[in-house]
Amino acid sequence: MFETVTVNDVPEGAAILDVREDDEFTLGRAAGARHIPLGQLPDRLEELDPDTDYYVICRTGGRSARAADFMVARGYSAFNVAGGSGAWLEAEKPMEADGGAEPRVK
To answer: Is the domain defined by 3-96 classed in CATH 3.40.50.300?
Structure first.
């Protein structure tokens, strides 16, 4: 079973895994987040380090909950970020977007 944390509980410098689709990710994401869309996670799980604590984020928390559950069931350490990227933006946490655009959440 995975644990759900708030955006304020994500430690500074944490490994953030964004499981949204490509178009969502390019518009705005937590600064430094790694991107593996949820649908690709089963095929790309080996790209992740099982000894790292991953804070999994999506738009609102649904996809990240599924991803965290999938990861934990396979021996990885994953936390679901409640409220997702929307909550991250509202909390004024560091964000970035492709091309230097103003980050936004779709």
So the answer is: no
